[in-house]
Design brief:
Blueprint (H helix, E strand, L loop, with lengths): L7 E5 L3 E2 L4 E2 L13 H9 L3 E5 H12 L8 E6 L3 E7 L2 E2 L30 H5 L1 H13 L5 H6 L8 H9 L3 H25 L3 E5 L7 H14 L2 H5 L2 E4 L6 H9 L3
Parallel strand pairs: 1-4, 5-8, 8-9
Antiparallel strand pairs: 2-3, 5-6, 6-7
């Protein structure tokens, strides 16, 4: 069956040297340094493979087949355990001089803010990801702040997830609502900054935290309206992703079509 396959693609945590097909040194894959993943997998499968950052392939999928269809200029974000993203201009991925462009989760939003997994402080990922929301919920409970989170999880804060915080916020707990509002305010500032840089037709947001619906999208849209350049803000839509968990696979396949 593989003899009928013309080519394929792979999405991997970055940074990526796409031209060389090499995974450079992803912070979340211990021991991976300069791994020629495209060549290794391609040899096993007997086909030529393209390689790109996993968020880039998801963004490519949304631009070709999902919520970004028809958009020449697009920003894609995935807001989940971490925050990743892709920048597309004239319908093509913006990869930068060494393939490291599009690391939107590591925009520094709050100097001297919380420590990020990348080793720096105050990154968007450290402020607005699911991991960041859960961390804030756990800190609240450990500090004994009066809230329904503390009532339920006192003595077991490690069980708090972002979904739990969102559930308590939706049920009316003001402390949980404050955690979410702060995280989404920072997310909105990050998106507004990206809109200023790229002046996109559309910002597409996917990932697990988009299950919050308006609690995520409303603050982001407000921040873009208030903080972005008026011309850029007036011409951009902020919309949910359409392809869900399939976006990475679809985008990896799309690499072979480029």
């Amino acid at each position: 069956a593989m003899k009928r396959v013309a080519g394929g693609g792979v999405g991997s945590p970055g940074p990526i040297d796409g031209d060389a097909g090499v995974v450079v040194a992803p912070p979340n894959l211990a021991g991976w340094r300069d791994v020629p993943l495209a060549r290794l997998l391609g040899k096993r499968l007997g086909v030529q493979l393209g390689l790109a950052n996993d968020a880039n392939v998801a963004g490519l999928a949304e631009q070709r087949f999902g919520a970004g269809r028809g958009c020449a200029s697009l920003i894609y974000l995935t807001v989940s355990t971490g925050i990743g993203g892709a920048l597309l201009q004239r319908g093509e991925l913006v990869t930068g001089a060494r393939g490291a462009a599009g690391e939107v989760g590591h925009l520094v939003i709050l100097p001297d803010g919380p420590l990020c997994g990348c080793g720096r402080r105050g990154c968007l990922e450290a402020l607005s990801s699911g991991t960041a929301v859960a961390r804030s919920g756990r800190e609240l409970v450990r500090a004994g702040v009066a809230s329904t989170l503390t009532d339920r999880f006192s003595g077991r804060p490690s069980r708090i997830t972002a979904a739990v915080v969102a559930e308590h916020a939706a049920a009316g707990d003001p402390e949980a609502a404050r955690i979410l509002a702060r995280a989404m305010r920072y997310l909105g500032l990050g998106v507004a900054s990206l809109v200023n840089v790229l002046n996109p037709d559309r910002v597409v947001i996917g990932g697990g935290l988009t299950a919050m619906g308006d609690a995520l999208f409303d603050p982001v849209r407000r921040a873009v309206a208030r903080q972005a350049n008026p011309v850029a803000a007036a011409s951009v839509e902020v919309v949910p992703a359409e392809l869900g968990a399939h976006s990475g696979v679809i985008g990896a396949a799309a690499l072979a079509m480029l």
